[in-house]
Amino acid sequence: MTAPLRRYGTVRILVAEDDVRLADLLAQSLAEAGWAVDLVHDGTDAYGRALEEGNGFDVLLLDRMLPGTDGATVCRRLRHAGVTTPVLMLTARGEVRDRISGLDAGADDYLPKPFDLDELLARLRALHRRSSYDEEGVLTVGDLVVDADAHRVRRGGTEIELSAREFAILRLLVANAGKVVSRYSILDEVWDGETDLRSNVIDVHLATIRAKIDKPFGTSTITTVRGAGYRVETGR
């Protein structure tokens, strides 16, 4: 299974959970979904690892009631230290005041236990997408310009209209220009894994994208890498 993509490499997540069985389950499930997982079991280690990495992790998954230093305190101290990595906080407590205290500490999202694993993965993907796209700004490959903030595409001086899904696919490919992006990664990032890999929906969308960004200009930006995925060529 191919890892979810970050702009320059594999997506990394730090999981801080003191319930060893749950921690192992989370680490296994995330690894199977393609994430690179670092696992710790107390707040002191979580703070130390996250601080040491700076913003090297793409997402932090913190349990609210960690031993040593609780998750909210870890999050607050990291924010004060300038670490802006998105944080999803887990807790056995579902009261509003606990959610508020976690969010006020700097968490970006909050999920009470027990939780559905698919929902957890979807929330983590959403946090990663949001932070990745916020960092992208304007992406360029040759004379092709993808403006993530303005949601606009142009080639040379020509504006190109894409649907929301076509834009999301192109943005993902251009953000990883020169690298092969697998079909799984496209489904995971653009469709949240809701479409069957055997479906031709990606091929249909890519054919439309190529007809808009390449055919009128006599160019070939997106290469199909048989059995692997798709790649935006940087030298064209």
Brief overview:
This protein is of the alpha/beta class.
Give a structural overview:
The chain has 236 residues and is α/β, with parallel strands linked by helices. 41% of the residues lie in helices and 22% in strands. It has 8 helices and 13 strands. The strands form 4 sheets. A 5-stranded parallel β-sheet has the order 4-3-5-6-7, with helices on both faces. It has a 4-stranded antiparallel β-sheet with strand order 8-9-10-11, with helices on one face. A two-stranded antiparallel sheet has the order 1-2. The longest helix has 20 residues, at 117-136. The protein is elongated. The chain starts with a strand and ends with a strand. The model is unreliable at 5-9 (pLDDT under 50).
